Amino acid sequence: MFDRSKKGEHALLVQTHAGRLEEDVLEEFTDLARSAGASIAATATARIDRPNPSTLIGSGKLDEVKAMAEASGADLVLVNHALTPIQERNLERYLERRVIDRTGLILDIFAQRARSHEGKLQVELAQLRHLATRLVRGWTHLERQRGGSIGLRGPGETQLETDRRLLQKRVEQLQKRLEKVEVQRTQMRRARVRSELPRVALVGYTNAGKSTLFNALTGAGAYAADQLFATLDPTVRRIALPGGNAMLADTVGFVRDLPHELVAAFRSTLSEAREADLLLHLVDAADPLREERIAQVDAVLHEVGAGDLPQLLVFNKIDRIEGADIRHDAQDGIPDDARRERVWISARDGRGLELLQAVLGKRLGLQHVIGRVRLPPEAGRLRSRLHQLEVVRGEQSDEDGWLIEVDIPIAEAERLAAGADGGVIRALLPERTPEW
């Protein structure tokens, strides 16, 4: 019987694939392992067209993995695939080493990164829920009966049953504590809503530079590093934009195949995204798979109920692209479902931040234009619309129509300017700068 060691950071990576091996998948898994603090001893690939229900991989590949582990001195095996409790137990028994699947690895990283009280509670809850499926009869100490001594004879209770009961009790305690924390967070969120400040949430693939941009825009000093899941806890700060202020929230980064229990555990972090007025979707511009990353983040956003919120795509790290410069790819009347607005910046160098702030102010309706417009008698519909928007600050009428003083958000003015009677509104708008 294999005695499961609690130690082990010299890891053998096992990358499974059904068809062609994707190098970026293996690279991301390697980054995950290093982010957890593991040193890479060796890497094995295993094609599994039909997963073995007992060990995931076939017996021949299993012998090969064991030989590689012994030759490299690895005391830990990391598998880039979800393992069932039986598969994990059988692999550990055969390989005589600790085996951790992708979910367990991400959970370990989360446990290291969580800093706030709420974050630690969420991580522990996710770990316990994952562990609950792993309480199988794989270790001899879990099969010992209590009883046998004086006063303790009788049917007794197996150690396995005791562990399950204690685990369930701890899960219930954590759920109650998290409910209290969630009530407090909801009250804080309502206070922000009452302040009438628009809310922006930073989302994106992990390591896209969200915390770096958050610090650049807010000066908050949030932890930022070139590693996966550098920060987990939601941080909300006020930012100054042209025309007014807004609230900016930094959220946890996403990866492909993010375990469902982690999505559920970090509901408070992701609620910042669900309840935002605008999602600032940050993308690593230098990543050759950036379009795939965008699709993967969109998939997670749909999963948490934020898929239909308006987005502003921000392509970060242009300092890593030769000849790249800041720019704003405006929509220019193209429907929202055809192409999204894009801003190209470098958060690390600070290039493009003013442009991003200007675009944010415009998208949130913070930038206003103030002026007077002369409406002829036949423009009654446009006059009515201005009153409906509550942008009229003064009005005079005569035989030639109306002279109206307006204070209107630029975004709303541009929508009105695109209409049949929008010529007078169009005259109020500033000329677009070359960088726009």
Automatic annotation (TrEMBL):
PROSITE patterns named among the record's database cross-references: G_HFLX
A Pfam family the protein falls into: GTP-bdg_N
Stored CDD domains: HflX
GO terms, molecular function: hydrolase activity
Coiled-coil regions, chain positions: 157-191
Keywords: Coiled coil, Cytoplasm, GTP-binding, Hydrolase, Magnesium, Metal-binding, Nucleotide-binding
Hflx-type G domain sequence ranges: 198-368
Annotated compartments: Cytoplasm
InterPro entries reported in the protein's UniProt record: EFG_III/V, G_HFLX_dom, GTP-bd, GTP-bd_M, GTPase_HflX, GTPase_HflX_N, GTPase_HflX_N_sf, P-loop_NTPase
Record has Phosphoprotein as a keyword: no
Keyword Nucleotide-binding in annotation: yes
Record note on quaternary structure: Monomer. Associates with the 50S ribosomal subunit.
Family: Belongs to the TRAFAC class OBG-HflX-like GTPase superfamily. HflX GTPase family.
Function: GTPase that associates with the 50S ribosomal subunit and may have a role during protein synthesis or ribosome biogenesis.
Protein name according to UniProt: GTPase HflX
Organism annotation: Stenotrophomonas mori
